[in-house]
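For concreteness, we quote verbatim a single protein encoded this way:
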Amino acid sequence: MPTSTGLNTKKMDSKKNLFIYKKMKINLIVLFFAVCAAGAWAQEYKVPVTNEKEQMAEGQYKPQWESLRKHKTPEWFRDAKFGIWAHWGPQCVEGSGDWMARNMYKEGTYAYNYHKEHYGHPSEVGFKDILPLFKAEKWDPDKLVERYKRLGAQYIFVLGNHHDNFDLWDSKYQPWNSVNMGPKKDLIAGWAKASKKYGLPLGISFHADHAWLWYEPAQRYDINGPKAGIHYDGKLTKADGKGKWWEGYDPQDLYAQNHPMSEKSWANNRVHVQWAWSGGACLPTLEYVTNFYDRTLDAINRYNPDLIYFDVTVAPFHDISDCGLKIASHFYNKNPRAVMFGKMLNDEQREALTWDVERGAPNEIVEEPWQTCNCLGNWHYNTSIYERGSYKSATEVIKQLIDIVSKNGNLLLSIPLRADGTYDEKEAAILDGIEAWMTVNKESIFNTRPWVRFGEGPVAESDIKLKAQGFNDGMYSNMTSADIRFNQTKKYLYVTPLGWPEDGKVVVRSLAKGNPHFKKNITTVELLGYGCLKVVQTDNGLEIQLPIVTNAIAPVLKISK
């Protein structure tokens, strides 16, 4: 018969075992849910990148959407509203506009004909042979950045590489770069020094991930004419360079065409269908994707930008690789001020990346800060636009800026530069016009926030849709004085008609007597650049008689809250 001490010991052991069992059960449950959570966020990628050369920075952000969503677009960017982009590289040499290095391989196009006439047939003189002609001999980044700051720019963007796959810095992983050939200069280093001098955040855009698809026409040949059937230079190798100016360099490091063409690649516009690595696109190799990853991290580590931009759907190699998420993780862990842009984002992705809209705008207030990227002309310098005088006017730029800011967005404006690194006199006049308006009215732009509604009038009340990643800015080009936009600070409401009414009369329906959004009686408003005006608030709206035209673009009315 056991003693009482023995019974107590057994009871204690039993309780202990029960405790251990319960603890093990809890741990197993926790482990189960952890595994499930990991499984929920894990994704099998067709082309995962390696970290053998450039190590991803460790920190609070992991290369997963759930983790990246914790990074919020910083307030400095929300305050900035306006940036300038030097979308400038060797494709500006010929002056035939955007995507010149692709279009020169498309028989019968303007770029093809121009290149053949002035430089030679693309089977003999390819884009690689244009690179030495990109001299940047008049480029003065200090002078340019100083001018852009006077214009009102709050940040500067520069091209790191385009779809042409040419790196504009002393690249560790791309021998075809601006230090080895062409300008023989580290262009990003020059821009970075100037932006630091003038206290402007630096942005770098990377586009080379799509060279794989984009350059496929370089594998083609003429269908017609005396050189029919003779391949262009897209398949040349290092061995073919013996005795040439590019001896020692491998054209495949530039063209990346040592692969089969994508499905229906001879259809000139097929690349747009395949932009998200679908639609029959030939998928890139691990080597190619990792090279882009290494190059991008190399530039981030060297120049410490505050902003990076990719001309892609969502993020680089989205859905086929973890490349884009790893870049984002590295960037956010290195720089708490970081802003990384993506296009065509869903709601979840907009919490992790900052949404970029190309040449357009949503017709609503967007809760998270976003950006429109737009250009005075083509993205790359286009001589015919200069000759025709077809640039966007200062009026168009300012009206779009006002509209974008009213919706919680920023405008990134590209000023096309010639190959020598200068802008032309017509662009200079446009910059003067923008500066003149900004000098008087900038308080209605910078450090502001949307009001309860972004605007009223015909355009605001229209159902304007985005086309793919944007491309609806034509709908906003014809805004008139009947289109009014709002934004605010803690102390003031700014009301901006997008033009001067012929009779000088403005009626703001949103500020009618008894409106639910601004209950204070309004008896006076200030016209920026002029002074105070008496107004009448009726059941129809706030009625304002403008005395004179104070600028050539748009009057700004300031109302105390």
